[in-house]
Amino acid sequence: xxxxxxxxxxxxxxxxxxxxxxxxxxxxxxxxxxxxxxxxxxxxxxxxxxxxxxxxxxxxxxxxxxxxxxxxxxxxxxxxxxxxxxxxxxxxxxxxxxxxxxxxxxxxxxxxxxxxxxxxxxxxxxxxxxxxxxxxxxxxxxx
Length: 143
Description:
The chain is about 60% helix and about 0% strand. It has helices at about 1-5, 10-25, 35-50, 50-75, 80-85, 110-125.
């Protein structure tokens, strides 16, 4: 892949397409092997430099930070989640690093909306100067 990449004239287009496809793989847990993805990123970094690959590295970092954040949320809200008999998984992404546009505005059904309110209130207490912007079209819900 890297040998072919070196021959490309449109490296920027390749990186843009790679970012979009990687974002989809990371958010939907479709990546077969995270180590292989990281290996490709390291090789791209050698070829392109750190500035080009920094967005991709931040995407990986966001996914791992989100796992820890959700674990912390579940620990602090175990009673409410158990009472509602719900499970929740959220991914917090850096706004400027992911290749997404603004999401659709929609009204959530009350079970999902209640979960969103609980998470948003917890997040707002934990991080006072941050704002959550939901991207409903990038996730999934099982009811």
